Amino acid sequence: MRVHDITLTRDFSSDDLKSISIKAGRYLSEIILLKPDAIIDVKSLLGMMLSPLKKGFVITIRTKGKDEEEALDFMCEIMDSRQSGDVVLKAGEMV
């Protein structure tokens, strides 16, 4: 299991959350976000949409499984992105 704490540097839009959930599905590992008020399965689109991620939130990213290190790297990169739209799927991009 891999665990990393991060402070969000921006708000995540519903499109960002949808894209993160879809891209997280590429990993075999379980990917969980821990907030003070919620435990979110990143691969669950509904779970992602029901728990907003806002600038200044401190979250814990937890990955567990065969590709946990790669999944954690992916999530850290996404959560640390500086601009809105960095994680949105581009037209024609494979899911």
From TrEMBL:
Signal peptide: none annotated. PROSITE patterns: PTS_HPR_DOM (PS51350). Coiled coil: none annotated. Residues 1-87 form the HPr domain. It comes from the Bacteria. This is HPr family phosphocarrier protein. It comes from Paenibacillus apii.
